[in-house]
Amino acid sequence: GGGSRGGGTTTGVLAWRRAADVRADSAASAIGRSARGEGGEEARSSGRGDTNGHASAVLEATADLRQGGELVEFHVGGRTFKVPAQLIRARPATRLAQLLAERAEAPRSTGDGSTGGGGGVPTEGAATGEPICVSGSAARFTYILDWYRYGQISVPSSVPIAAVLKDVRELLLPESIIVNGSARGTKPPPGAKVARDLIRRVLDRWRGFGAFFGGLLGQIEAHFRAVGEGALNINVVFDFQPFALPLYGDSGWLDAAHVCSAARARALALKLEEEGYRCHFSYTELMVKR
Fold it and tell me: What's the whole-model pTM score?
């Protein structure tokens, strides 16, 4: 069993299992309340027809784990996430479930240089095989796993929802999911294509944009490092002081070589938002927030 691989590994797996029991019990309780109509009018009217399916998946995965069921490891952005395999398999149409199925079907080394079939009995309480590599953001992957556990996602205001929906789309989650209590479509909105086309057309005629944009990103990063270190006086209540890029003055546009039109200013804001920043305009400045 797991003890033969060393005390540290066994202790880690047991601690993870106890924590998973608590999280899964809490999730099942919350999903059960929602299924009984205690989740609020917005959640009930959102078309979430698979609430009971998620509750069953959570309960089954929890029971499976308590009985020494299989764990699966996903390697994302330099971090490894270990979850009950049954929780992923319960959603076979998703990309993670497909990757797990592909690994199960692949020939597996037997340790003597030969290969066996894709079957085999997993070691109790341990992840079988090598971690499955998934391209994406490790910080946002936790929200994807929340969907498998709870059937919905809660995203803090510091994380762009558009980036999470992009991950959801690439990992083949349903086309409509609950985010922060509201139903959100995962298909790219028509406005996204308009924005991309606008950026492309503007940047095609913007000589030296790459160097300019790289330098601006460096200034923004330096600004927020200084904010974090307390080097800047923060006068904005309940928020970090934004980075301000002056655009317009008494004599007109301040940077005739770069930001010299409304189209360029808007394209610049859209590019910054692609980097995860939030932007808005004052009368004379582009304000950038984290």
Answer: 0.50
